[in-house]
Amino acid sequence: MRKLQALIFDVDGTLAETERDGHRLAFNQAFADFGLDWQWDVATYGALLAVTGGKERMLAYWQQRDPQAAAKPDAPALIAQLHRRKTAHYVRLVESGALMLRPGVARLLDEAEAHGLKLAIATTTTVENVVALLEATLGQGSAARFAAIGAGDIVPRKKPDPGIYLWVLEQLRLEAGDCLAFEDSRAGWSAADGAGLATIVTSCAYTADESFPEARAWLNGLGEPQAPARGYYRGAPWSGMVTVPLLETWCC
Ligand code: XBP
Ligand code: MG
């Protein structure tokens, strides 16, 4: 029988609610710095999340607003500059302590290590953002707790492409059947599923209205002793706290 060996986590929306009051604000600050009249309100940003990756998201928005300007040869260079500025704003925001991990995340990470499981990250966001978030929430040096951090442009195509998960599995030298993925979005679920991983979807603020009946489990969070999570395991209603012994039975 197969044994669970690693947990692979998405970051944005899964480890922390980073989008509305993190990435969105950082994009808007970068737009203002560059004198652009682009400002993404909460609803606009929610729609734009369908495009994964900050550079790709800005380009898609620009193409909607002004297709001719967005097609000019210097457009990718401006997007890259904007994105560097956005990343600097985001990292500063995270370092100020503005974002917290979702309930149950720190507990499950500790428990997984205590059970000898490997931890890994598979995310669309930029690696600086991941390290800043881990260090701000779990303490200095905490990025080293993760055996593999797959992030941003390390693969040519972003989620829903499975490439980032396949890259992480290769780094871990594990097969998909030895691992579980944690995601919060349709693009993320598709990426993990495409790599052959069973996936626990913990819906976030922006995906609370979406349904994931195909996921191994689809929950509203990981749960804590005083605040159990609710949702479905293999389509059947479930409530409780996500623990490593439970995941061992959910994995294989
Ligand atoms: C996260 C994203 C990212 C962030 C922005 O998706 O889509 O684009 O919003 O990050 P997932 P960058 O949670 O599925 O990984 O600006 O650094 O690209
Ligand atoms: Mg996500």
Brief descriptors of the model:
binds magnesium ion, 8-stranded mixed β-sheet, 8 strands, binds xylulose-1,5-bisphosphate, 252 residues, globular, single chain
Q: Percent of residues in helical segments? A: 40-55%
Major sheet description:
8 strands, mixed
Summed over residues and divided by their number, the pLDDT gives a mean of 97
Percent of residues in β-strands: 5-15%
Strand order of the largest sheet: 3-2-1-4-5-6-7-8
Provide the gyration radius in Å: 18 Å
**Cofactors and ligands:** xylulose-1,5-bisphosphate, magnesium ion
Which of globular, elongated, flat, extended, rod-shaped describes the shape? Answer: globular
Number of strands: 8
What is the H/E string?
EHHHHHHEHEHEHEEEEH
Show unreliable segments.
none
Q: Between the first and last Cα atoms, what is the distance in angstroms?
A: 8 Å
Structural class: alpha/beta
User: Number of helical segments?
Assistant: 10
